[in-house]
Design goal:
By secondary structure, the protein is of the alpha/beta class. About 30% of the residues lie in helices and about 15% in strands. The protein has one domain: Rossmann fold, CATH 3.40.50.1360. It is built from seven helices and ten strands. Strands 1-10-9-6-2-3-5 form a seven-stranded parallel β-sheet, with helices on one face. A three-stranded antiparallel β-sheet has the order 4-8-7. The longest helix is centred in the first third of the chain and has 15 residues. The structure holds 2-amino-2-deoxy-6-O-phosphono-alpha-D-glucopyranose.
Length: about 240
């Protein structure tokens, strides 16, 4: 694990963008793994600037999102499908057919999850996976005690994650209770991983991921077993390292 501590969030985005680009250098059809949440926003904006500048072209690549809420229609502004369209698909100039998000609205969620996991493998696997981390150490929506060998599947969201994400939902709108998420085993198959985190509320999770024991209570700690992980954090998120 290589850990880079940056002075601020903008620098996190710039350093992480360098890592993403170097991980796919020379690859005209990269397969990106993309996360939602606030953490990768600066990274996506930085990549969009570099696409604009002609430094990199991701339009011939593919993107696979990590996760999706169950029961939220894909066109809902808070669905991860819609979030990825706004933050990745359009700024990265990718055709919608090249961007996949798990289907949390499928009649048979288990079958859709399996099909999604297989689609990643059929695409040759993920070249570089972008990750954020939950305050409880989750990656994707793999909550504490998730199996280290898990594949894409339906999971129940913890109370803490629902509270963390409630800020995105308007008053009176129910925060989903379930999700479909790539498994820890799925995520670990990516050839490179770029993890970004900012803010003091992430400091405990970042320290547990990097320096704690590899244990189900901190799902992100499994990244200690991955051969190519770049952790890019600001000073606040790195304060407990
Ligand atoms: C969310 C997502 C994760 C994300 C994490 C942190 O709920 N499922 O993919 O990395 O929790 O979110 P944020 O970056 O907004 O802090």
């Amino acid at each position: 694990m290589e850990v880079v501590i940056c002075p601020n969030e903008a620098e996190v985005g710039a350093v992480a963008a360098d890592r993403v680009i170097s991980s796919i250098a020379g690859n005209q059809t990269p397969v990106l793994g993309v996360a939602t949440g606030s953490s990768p926003v600066q990274l996506y904006e930085e990549l969009a600037r570099r696409i604009e500048a002609g430094e990199v072209d991701l339009s011939h690549g593919l993107a696979f999102a990590l996760d999706e809420y169950v029961g939220i229609p894909p066109e809902h502004p808070l669905s991860y499908k819609e979030t990825i369209r706004r933050t990745v698909q359009e700024p990265f100039r990718m055709d919608p057919a090249r961007v996949r998000v798990p289907n949390g609205f499928a009649p048979d969620l288990a079958a859709a999850a399996l099909e999604y996991d297989n689609a990643i493998a059929d695409a040759g696997g993920v070249d570089v996976q972008i990750l954020g981390i939950g305050t409880n150490g989750h990656i994707g929506f793999n909550e504490p005690t998730s199996s280290f060998s898990s594949r894409t599947r339906v999971k129940t969201l913890t109370r803490q994650t629902r509270e963390d994400n409630a800020r995105f939902f308007s008053d009176g709108e129910a925060v989903p209770t379930h999700c479909v998420t790539q498994g820890l085993g799925t995520i670990m198959e990516a050839r490179a991983i770029v993890m970004v985190a900012s803010g003091e509320h992430k400091a405990d999770a970042v320290a547990a991921m990097v320096e704690g024991p590899v244990a189900g209570v901190c799902p992100a700690s499994i990244l200690q077993f991955h051969p190519k992980v770049f952790v890019v954090v600001d000073e606040a998120a790195g304060a407990k390292l």
